[in-house]
Amino acid sequence: MPKILIIDDEPDLRLALSATLEDHGFDVEEGSNGSQAIELAVKHSPDVIILDVNMPIVDGMTALKALKADSRTAGIPVCILTAIKDPTSEAYAREIGAADFFGKPWSEERLIRRLTEIIERRSNGSGGSMTMDICSSSNGLASASIEANRIDRESRLMVTIQSRHNTVFDLS
Questions:
Q1: Which of 57, 84, 88, 159 is the most buried (most CB within 10 A)?
Q2: What distance in Å separates the CA atoms of residue 154 and residue 92, rounded to the nearest whole number?
Q3: Alpha-carbon gap, residue 47 to 28, rounded angstroms
Q4: pLDDT tens, 135-171?
Q5: Are 75 and 98 spatial neighbours (Cβ–Cβ below 8 Å)?
Q6: Cα–Cα distance between 22 and 29 in angstroms, integer?
Q7: CB atoms closer than 10 angstroms to residue 104
Q8: In what side-by-side order are the strands of the sheet with 3-7?
Q9: With contact defined as beta carbons under 8 Å apart, do 24 and 134 qualify?
Q10: Angle between the 37-44 and 60-69 helix axes, to the nearest 10 degrees?
Q11: Cα radius of gyration rounded to whole Å, the chain
Q12: CATH of region 3-136
């Protein structure tokens, strides 16, 4: 199972992203700031790191530079996930080593497709079956499973958001 490390300071975003990735067959680890990036990458050996840009302590661009400068983590692809929709920031991120750049909110389909491609490229094509396992929804059983996971994820997200923000949503 491919492993993704998410580094983002927003707990709700980490929860939503983790649930989405887990629904598509990824194993997920999380960190809450850029200063944890190298430590968690070495500890968990992820196939890909998803890194936010705007974070306290150490921002994402600084963390990306550190990850690419450390021999233990330099080979791990890093994708930037940010609310900053600026071509200059994207170009800079790619220049210092980002494998891809995703805006918030992200396209689930594009995110899953690109992560799968990046992991397959890293494994030199030996992960061909992973594309079928993760991306295929033409199988009725797979579609039903993904739909059930989506409904469960939405329920878990609603409960988490309600408890964190002390609000109650009436969906009836």
A1: 84
A2: 35
A3: 10
A4: 434 344 455 555 565 566 556 555 555 555 554 544 4
A5: no
A6: 10
A7: 15
A8: 27-31, 3-7, 48-51, 78-82, 100-103
A9: yes
A10: 50
A11: 16
A12: 3.40.50.2300
